[in-house]
Structures are given as structure tokens and as C-alpha cells.
Amino acid sequence: MIAYSKKILSSLPIALLFVVIGCQKEFGNDNYTAYFGGEVINPKTNFVLFLKDDEVVDTIFLDKNNRFIHKFDSLAPGLYTFKHEPEYQYVYFDKNDSLMVRINPVEFDESIVFCGRGDEKNNFLMELYLKNEDDRNKMFDVFDYDVEKFISNCDSSYDSKVEFYNSKKEKIKWNDDFDLYAKTMLSFHHYSKKEIYPMAHKMRTGENVNDKLPTNYYNFRNEVDFNNKSLVSYSPFVRYLTNFLGNVSFSQPNSTNLEDEDLEQHIHKLNIADTLFKNEKIKNKILNNIAFSYLLEDQNIVNNQKFLARYNELSTDKSKQNEINKIGSSIQNLALGNDLPAVTLVDLNGNKINSQTILNRKTVVFFWTENAESHLLAVHRKALDFHKNNPDYQFVAINIDEDQIKWKKVLENHRFGTINEFRADNFEELKDKWVITKLHRTIILNESGKIHNGFVNLFDVKFGEQLK
């Protein structure tokens, strides 16, 4: 990693190198001067946003060579975010750090390497993030394991990352403030897996394992500070809190009607969040996550209205309230019996096609990305299995990536047979019109191409019943 950083550093223009080296003079000063700069390969916009706790601190524009540099006369040490739409990543600044970063939006996370003062701890954070992402992409099959095998697999994965964390901490000797974010990224990914397991296992296999979990299974919850304001905008923390609430409410179903049960569980989540979280920002963020999750799983318009009424009572985040209520309205367009709104798809020859010319009969539509290899293999296997037993349906896979050549290479390597493969021409259009914000989403159309169910999951143990 260090050698790679030096390679990139040597490729930066002399002016930027001067900034990195020249600011060394200020390292012993009492001021909080800091620099942030770098280069964007294949930029999608002409600027990079620099944020703190989701609030924009500065907009840094690219020059004609797609490079950027910004001097902060006073930058408080802490965790920040840089964003090149639509992607973002974290960067941590100690006093007087001067950091350069190279960004490629096509492979955003994998492309990021820091150099300059403060680079080692930031490169560690990126390495740990990528290890977690790789683990997340392989989790689908792991949730099918029985309790003993899952815990063994989960703990083994965690132990290897603990060893990595300890070795880097000893070498870099970072401070306690940075350690909060490093340990949170390390531990909360592990905690999330343990919260997700009972829910995912039940959905995928039909087996409820709650009574089979060891008595100490959830002991890690004693380590969680649910109101740590330093973590309010840190995704590993927020993701864990959402998974925790999902698991707690999952174990308390009351209704025999599945749609009503889902409503009750999500309102229960809202009520727990209202009681558990004292920090207003954390509470609003979790309420928003619960709302997004619910609205993308349920298409019962009456239940949506009941849920939104309770959400609006509890949330004080007016901006997100407007966005979530808008999604609630958009979902009504995807109700049973409606036409699926037209979007532009691309075939293997690069031809652009109106989706309505293809999706005009019994169809199962699912989604995938090359960045989640475990999912792309698992979802295609599931689709092929269902197609054998339901030959009257066409199964349409829609890739959400941008690179036509890479997409074709993936398909050439795997050859998924009877699956009809297309790529989204514009993912933002797909996301807005079909409300696609998660990979597990599946859409079923009837014999007339009308929506039979717009919010299902191909991995649900009861999915086959939807095709009858």
C-alpha cells in the first residue's frame, strides 16, 4: 500500500507536490491549517464536495486537468466525507494533515489511495472498508448455515480483521479519536451480521433459529452506545442500528396477515427508535432508514398511509420527510394491476430498448451488479431454478452497472442460459420510476405485463407461491 501511494504521489503535478511538502513547515504550529486535494479520473461532475456530518463544508472545483486542491485555514480534527456524485467516502484529518487522493468514479472505492501527511490511517480505513465490503458480498450463502456453522464462520472472519486492526494500530499509533472510527468499522460490521442472521435465515430457509441461538449470542449489544453523537453520520454505526431494530421487531410478530404483520413490525421499530434514541440526529436518521425500508417492501397503500402517519409524528427532519412522503406517493404507481413505467434498457448489442416492448407478458424482473459477485451468482441460480418449474414466465435480469464491455464479459464468463439479460441505460431513471434502491428487489408481472407484485424478493422462501 505504501509503495502504491508513492507511485501515485510521484505522478502528481509539481504544484500539488509543493503543497504537500511545503505545508510541512506548519506542522509544528498551533494553527489548524490543512490541505485536501487530488485528481479525479473520468469525472462525472466538475467538483468534489467536502462534508462534515452530512453538511457541505466546501465545494472544491476541478481544474482543466481534473485535479483539485483546497487549503483550510482552520480545520478541526475529525472525520469528514468527500463526495464525487453519486459516490462518497470518509477521510480523517488530524491537526495539520495534508492529504491527496486519486479517485476513479468507475471503480470508486477500489480506486481510492491516499498520500501525504495522514495517509497511513486513511489507507487503513479504506482497506478495512474493502474487507468488509468483500465480506458483505459473500454473506448471502452464509445466512443459510445452521447456527453453529454460521457463528464459526462469522467469528473466523471477524478474528482475521481484528488481527489486521491490531497490527496496523501498533504500527501507525493513531490517537483515541481516530480509534473510535476504526473500531466502529471493525466491530459494527460484525455486529450487523449477527443481527441480520436470524431474519435472513428465516426468510431464506423458513427456519426460525431464535430458540437455537446461544444465551451469549447478543452479549455484544452491551458494548453499544446507542446515542454516541460522534457516530451520528457514520454508516457502519447507522447500518447496525437499523439492523438491530429490524431484528428486535422481527421476533415479535402479532398478526396472522402478512401485510398487517409487516406494518406492525415497522411501526414497532419506529416506537422503539423514539424511546431508545435520545440524540435527535441519530433518531431522525434511524426513523428515515426504517421508512425507506418499509416503503420499499410494502405496496399496501392503506398500510403505507398508516405507517407514514406515525413516521411523520415522530420525525423532525422536514427535508427527509418530504423525500419519504414523495416515495410513498411514487409507490402508488407500482400498485397491483398498474403498468410498470417505461425505462430505457440496453441489450448485448448496445441497442437501446423501451422496457415496455419486452415486459409485456408473464415476467420476473430481478437486478444485479458485478460488484456483488456472490449475489449475482446466487440470484441467477435461483432464477434458473424457478424458470424450470415456471416455463410460462420469462426471467429478465437487469444489470445496474454502467460499463457495457464489463457487463458482456461477466455474462460471457458465466453463460446463464435461459435468462434474458439487459442493462439499465440510466440507473437514476430506473431508481426513480421503479423505486429501486436495493439489490434484492424483484418485480413480478402478469400475463398482460401488468404488475402482479412490485415488491418481492427472489430469495424469499415463499417466492414460488407468488408465481402460481
TrEMBL record:
TM region(s), chain numbering: none
Residues of the Thioredoxin-like fold domain: 361-451
Signal peptide limits: none
Pfam assignment, any one: Thioredoxin_8
Record protein name field: Thioredoxin-like fold domain-containing protein
Source organism: Flavobacterium azooxidireducens
